[in-house]
Write a structure and sequence with these properties.
The protein is mainly alpha-helical and 153 residues long. Helix content is 48%, strand content 7%. The chain contains seven helices and two strands; from the N terminus they run αβααβαααα. Strands 1-2 form a two-stranded parallel ribbon.
Amino acid sequence: MTGPSTTFPNAKFVHILRDPRDVAKSTIRMGWAGNTYHAVDHWMKSEKSWDRLVAGGNPASLFEFRYEDLIGDLSGTLTALCYFLNTEYDSQMLRYHENSTYAPPDISLTQQWKRLQTPREIELVEIKASGLIQARGYELSAGDPSGTANWIL
């Protein structure tokens, strides 16, 4: 079986994990889905792809971090990423926004789902992706929603 680690034996793979409730809302804003129930599919597909890569890859070629940790500790997370990539961290990396259309990192962009999503939207994401949400170390907002999933199907 061939995969990225056999096709590209010297490649390094970086995975940025983000809370799926935030990803779902962002997916809608990008116009890739019309509602949170379908928008979480984008996150689930990406996470399952990462799982396949991890299962067949060399652990030394894989690096994962949470988006929330990156935003909360830019220099620390970037230092670890640079070490993994065999390059030196430079504080100028944090000034990318001075020469691009991207805004600087903003901590208010994390956990937006708690402020911007309705309880129903949160429930829909958590019903559909609860197992993967928990497997990725995120807590569900109100316990295990699996008991209410039948009415959706």
